[in-house]
Structure formats: C-alpha cells, structure tokens
Amino acid sequence: MADMGTIADQGIYPQHRTKTIHLVRHAQGIHNVAGEKDHSAYMSEELFDAHLTPLGWQQVDKLHQHVHASGLHKRIELVIASPLLRTMQTAVGVFGGEGYGDGIDVPPLMVENAGNSVHPAISTLNCPPFIAVELCREHLGVHPCDRRRSVSELWTRKEKEIAVVTHSGFLIHTLSAYANDCHPSVKSELCRPFNNCELRSVVIVDKSMIGSDPSITDFPGKIPSGADVPSEAA
What we know:
Blueprint: H1 4-8, E1 18-25, H2 30-37, H3 54-69, E2 78-81, H4 85-95, E3 108-110, E4 122-123, E5 130-132, E6 161-166, H5 168-178, H6 184-191, E7 199-205
Parallel strand pairs: 1-6, 2-5, 2-6
Antiparallel strand pairs: 1-7, 3-4
C-alpha cells in the first residue's frame, strides 16, 4: 500500500464518474499559413471560415492512420466538432469511414471536394456519430476565419469515450482551467500548445455530481441474499 504522502498526491474516483476525452486540434488551415507570414492577414475576408490546406489533409490522413493502428477508432463512441469548416474537415477525415470503393453503398459523411478540399468523398461506414457544437468553436472575435466554450456539457452525454475536434484557443483555455489543481509538471504537460492535428487523450472526473448515470460494471453483491453461513461451515 502507498504511504500517506503518496496518497495525498493521488486520487480515486468511481469509474462511472469519469470520461475519456480525446482532444484534437484541427489540421493546418489556409489561415494558419497566411497568419504565420503576416498576422494582420487574419483580418482578411479571403480567410472566411478557413478550409484545410493540402498539407492539412496530409496531416489528417496521418492521424487517421494512427487512430486505426492504435485501435482508438473502435473505442470512440461520439465525435464532437466545432462547426467551423476546418474542424469539420479534420473530424470527418480522422474519425470518418473509409473512402468509397467497390461494394460500398452507404450515405456519405463528406461529399467529394467539400469546402474546396479536392478530397474524395468519405463514407459513414463503421464510424461513430458526429455532432457539431457551437461551444467548441474558436473564441468569438473579429477574425473572419473564426466566424461561424465548456466541457462540463459532456456530462449530459451517456458516451464514456468522446473525441473533441476544436481549436487551439479553446484547448488552451479549457485545459488551463482544469490544470490549476495539478502538480506543476502535469499542468505544464496539459497546457502545452497544440500542434495542428495533434491528439491528446485525457480523463475528466465528475467531482460535482453533474453526471447521473449509474455504473454499468459495479455489482452490489449478496445476490441471492440469505443467512450468513459460519466460516467453519463454508
């Protein structure tokens, strides 16, 4: 057993009071390229609801391969994305079904060339449900590329393993708020800026009893019930 000093640095919670969240920043968008060259470019109307670059789609394909190679695609029960085009394209490309081939006859998750993507259609075959959530978008501001924020709303969902595809500002704001009671080294790890198309997995804990779903794995025991048998007779 751990000593008291170690216990003070750890925590234990009922499993059904936790959720595993896979956080993803969108892949490279045209606004990232323009903004790195000239920050004032973020004000350009040409970047309205910015779409992914060809390099961004390559990043999406690499993360899609990782998600499948790691088996993560089999565990994710729901994908939540910001409604901006770049996050929707990233979410669909990473967690969507395969492209269309012989014998595939299912509705598309993304049609061919959606949002000037020059990308083939992506199917709904064997993929989790997707929803777009306004609260996951980039912070509301004056940049046209952002036109179109709290993870506590996830506790109203029954799913236990969820992917959230969003923006750098949302990720840093949210993780910084949750990291305040962590060890400094853990806080530093959590609050490190996200690269384009980076994925990090975290566990969130329902400390305030927002979630009300009972455990599906706990078992109450003493079934069937009856008089206890003396140990020497057992």
